[in-house]
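Board notes (copied after class):
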Amino acid sequence: MLRFSGQLLTSPIGRKLMLSIVLFSSLITLLTTVYQLFNDYNGDVSRIDRAFSSIEKVNLEVLAASIWVIDQRLINTQIDGLSQLPDITYISIKDDSGQEWQAGKYQQTSTIEKQFDLIYTNSSDIKVGTLYVQADLNIIYDRLYDKAILILLSNAIKTFLVAGFILFLVWLNITQHLLKLSQYCDRISLEKPFEPLQFAHKDKDEFALVANAINTMQQQVRASFADVQESKNALQNALEDRERLLKLERSYKDELARQVKEQTKELEQSLLILKRAQQVLVEQEKMAALGGLVSGLAHEINTPIGICLTAASSQLSHVEDLIKLIHSEHATLEEINRILEEYQQSCQLIVNNITRASTLIQKFKTVAAEQRHEKNTQFNLKQQLEDIIDSTQIMFSPQHVDIKMNVDAELEVNSNLNLLNQIIGNIISNAYTHAFRGIEDSRIFINACIDNDMINIEIQNNGLSIPKEVADHMFEPFFTTTRNKGGIGLGLAAAFNAATLIQGSIRFEPLSPLGGPMFIVSFPYTLHPLYNDDSVFVDDGNLD
């Protein structure tokens, strides 16, 4: 019995269950007790109110008549009768003359009080006094207190009895089986023989199902453990094989590292040879580009110089003929004028070609020669573009091209003004020269915007498209498609060079919103402080 009581009281589940039952029952008991006491209190107060109503209906007229006639005996009798009523502890009557009759003891607290006017009715209603009635609530409180103690005590005894019985049932049907289950689980060992779990009762309840499940699980675990042992042995053998393979692999890696080291030395030597070959190729490319540039310049200059040489030789011949004619006796004025006219034509031819050669050299300097002593200036971009457009339209008059712009009138730029004039002027002049052959409604649109501290100027036109084979070389010096018409191919090359000098770029797009090609000029909104422009890049005409 003591063992049973100890297990019953020390069971955590039993203690929690009993505590839960006691708390819940106590809460229900408390709520029902409060509700019952509240109803009883309301009933007692209602009984007092009914007593007050009875006094008002039965005794007021009799008391008023007794006071009217001042019948002392009858008044005292009625007061004593009223004081005998349940819960009434104090009665007081005052007439209009100040005389007072009392019964009982007046209390200051825990009372219900009511006052009635005493009206004597004859030919009219006459107030003859006042009745004051007081009921003591302490009697009600004491009765309710005794009742609450009785209810709580009886419910507590009942709750503890029910909780104890439930606790016993829980131990009998659950706790002792759980205890046996925990002890069995503590004794489980894979090294000991299998011993099935069995409960004393023979009912097929949930614990029987748990026992079957544990027994089945234990058999499966033992089978898995045997498999694990076999796998462990196999793994041990595999580890031994792995060690042998690792030793073999390390020997292979050492051999491979030696071979890689040798090949790396060979590759480094090959890379050194390739770098030297690359330097030679770069130098060859530079020499080839320089040779092409010199060849183009020589070709362009050779023609006017050859013409000048031919004209000078012709002048010598004309001078000799003139000398002979002057010393001849048959010289005529017409022959002398003819020789002088031919001499004048030769001189004019020499002057024209020397001027062309000088112009060619001067324009070549705009591509290759270093310019100096010009500083950056701040200017209004829209006003500057309008000036470039006006000068270009005058240069190509009477050819008409409708030029429109979308440029912020307040946009101020700090850059090299002459270089920007050369870039924009050469691109627009190139459009005038090449784009509008056969185009009646010639249009150019210039759009300028700021993107990430860069000024982007888009120059669009609706002219002829530029073939890819021409677009691939159009920024190269001396590349032109109109050499037979006097073009020398330095316009876009000079614009490209000028854009580089102002830390910008020129990009070509084959198709623009107007339908023709588009050039996009980009340069910094404000040039970097490290850029100290010591150069001047001047161009006075179309370099095509």
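Comment from the instructor: The first strand starts at residue 88 and ends at 95. The two ends are 122 Å apart (CA to CA).
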